[in-house]
Q: What sequence folds into this?
């Protein structure tokens, strides 16, 4: 069976309540720490002068070569842990160091605005169809 | 907007599918849309996104699932909007590559200086092989037709390869490009020209020219006078009048005969402008010569080129078309236009009677 599609989210959206538990997500961040014995890595990203941490459970993607300080992209399911932290159980964890984060954010926004625009049009079309 | 909401009865007729440029392209759709497109009732295997007929797609995504069989790979590809199975047949190369050690054995020979095609080919094959075998998390680009098997959409890869994208440049470019493609093509309804082949689209003048051209060609006419072809155009005028009188009161205007003469005059002018016909002699007696049937003109033009190509000035480059034109007007007929001459030169060249040395220059060997 195929897994669910992993939608791209900004790290600060993953840490806030925007993503439901169990949902498949894809997000990015700088690797700030890795504890192999716990299979626990932490990605960090800055947004609006605040640092956001996404904890990644790496048990499915081990062994991997952790480069602390490098940009990573993670794809997996969001899980809530006992603590306040939000955890993503990674199915994919790729090092993409050198990525143009600003451009990536622009591309994500571009894609979202396209979908919003299209949904809007669909709603309008549906409404006008109802009206007639 | 989306094909999922399309009423099956609204399916565009299959005759028009080929008119849609999207039909013959690999559509770069989001996987979500590929999964939701409605399948055609007329022809299974064709799908509709927003009334665009689609049968092959082009996707880029992360491999999130893989299964290997003897003859194919099955990759689950995730582009952030959906996940789709891609059936990727192994080529012979990949099958025989079960023991890579064997092929890797003798490479070093090529390394001794010089270019060893066999070794290079092997390297190339190995590179190709490594691009076909993907692991979960790697980026895959797939092109191919969409199939539905066991109620599941999948892509039958006609091309597939691993994409090296260490800094996500390819993925970002893709993400920026696809919405533009949607806005410019896929989300725009196809606007076909109102049936270009039907009568209404062509003006009476266009129709009249075609009729006369056909007539001249079929009968191999060499010369004619206007009244020889006048009756060919009569149906056009009477049709027009019928159509007009159907929706409005007949108004006082030029009589049918006048209209016919006017149409004929315009048509002959157009044919002259195109160089299809010309008047060798301007006199009271309106005789039109058909350019391609005018053997004398052909001979005259060929002679001019043959003779003038020998002149030192033209020997190297050949004769320029304007030089030929002047000569033809001088020696054959003053009324030969450039369009006529171009037509003559073109057919002489087609018969290899003359050769163009470059644009607008001609010579004879």
A:
């Amino acid at each position: 069976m195929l897994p669910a599609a992993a939608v791209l989210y900004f790290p600060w959206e993953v840490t806030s309540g925007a993503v439901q538990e169990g949902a498949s997500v894809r997000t990015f961040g700088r690797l700030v720490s890795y504890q192999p014995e716990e299979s626990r890595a932490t990605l960090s990203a800055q947004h609006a002068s605040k640092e956001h941490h996404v904890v990644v459970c790496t048990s499915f993607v081990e062994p991997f070569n952790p480069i602390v300080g490098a940009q990573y992209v993670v794809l997996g399911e969001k899980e809530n842990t006992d603590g306040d932290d939000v955890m993503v159980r990674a199915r994919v964890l790729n090092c993409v160091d050198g990525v143009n984060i600003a451009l990536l954010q622009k591309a994500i926004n571009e894609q979202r605005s396209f979908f919003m625009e299209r949904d809007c049009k669909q709603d309008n079309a549906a409404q006008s169809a109802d009206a007639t | 907007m989306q094909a999922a909401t399309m009423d099956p009865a609204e399916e565009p007729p299959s005759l028009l599918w080929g008119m849609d440029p999207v039909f013959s392209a690999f559509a770069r759709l989001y996987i979500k849309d590929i999964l939701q497109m409605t399948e055609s009732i007329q022809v299974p295997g064709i799908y509709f996104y927003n009334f665009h007929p689609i049968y092959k797609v082009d996707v880029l995504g992360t491999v999130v699932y893989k299964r290997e069989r003897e003859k194919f790979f099955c990759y689950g590809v995730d582009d952030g909007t959906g996940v789709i199975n891609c059936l990727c047949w192994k080529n012979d190369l990949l099958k025989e590559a079960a023991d890579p050690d064997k092929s890797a054995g003798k490479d070093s020979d090529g390394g001794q200086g010089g270019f060893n095609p066999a070794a290079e080919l092997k390297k190339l094959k190995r590179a190709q092989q490594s691009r076909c075998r993907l692991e979960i998390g790697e980026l895959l680009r797939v092109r191919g037709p969409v199939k539905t098997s066991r109620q599941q959409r999948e892509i039958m890869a006609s091309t597939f390869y691993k994409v090296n994208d260490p800094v996500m440049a390819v993925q970002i470019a893709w993400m920026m490009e696809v919405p533009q493609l949607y806005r410019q093509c896929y989300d725009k309804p196809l606007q076909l020209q109102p049936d270009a082949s039907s009568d209404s689209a062509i003006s009476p003048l266009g129709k009249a020219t075609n009729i006369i051209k056909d007539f001249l060609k079929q009968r191999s006419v060499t010369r004619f006078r206007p009244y020889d072809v006048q009756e060919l155009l009569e149906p056009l005028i009477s049709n027009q009048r019928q159509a007009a009188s159907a929706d409005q009161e007949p108004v006082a205007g030029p009589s049918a005969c006048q209209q016919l003469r006017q149409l004929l005059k315009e048509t002959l002018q157009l044919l002259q402008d195109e160089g299809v016909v010309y008047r060798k002699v301007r006199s009271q007696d309106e005789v039109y010569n058909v350019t391609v049937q005018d053997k004398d003109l052909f001979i005259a033009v060929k002679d001019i080129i043959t003779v003038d190509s020998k002149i030192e000035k033209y020997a190297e480059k050949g004769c320029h078309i304007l030089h030929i034109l002047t000569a033809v007007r001088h020696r054959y007929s003053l009324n030969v236009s450039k369009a006529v001459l171009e037509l003559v030169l073109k057919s002489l060249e087609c018969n290899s009677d003359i050769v163009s040395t470059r644009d607008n220059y001609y010579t004879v060997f």
About this structure: The mean pLDDT of chain A is 89. The interface with chain B takes residues 2-8, 26, 61, 73, 75, 91-100, 103-104, 106-108, 110-111, 113-114, 118, 121-122, 125 of chain A (CB under 8 Å). The longest helix of chain A spans residues 101-131.
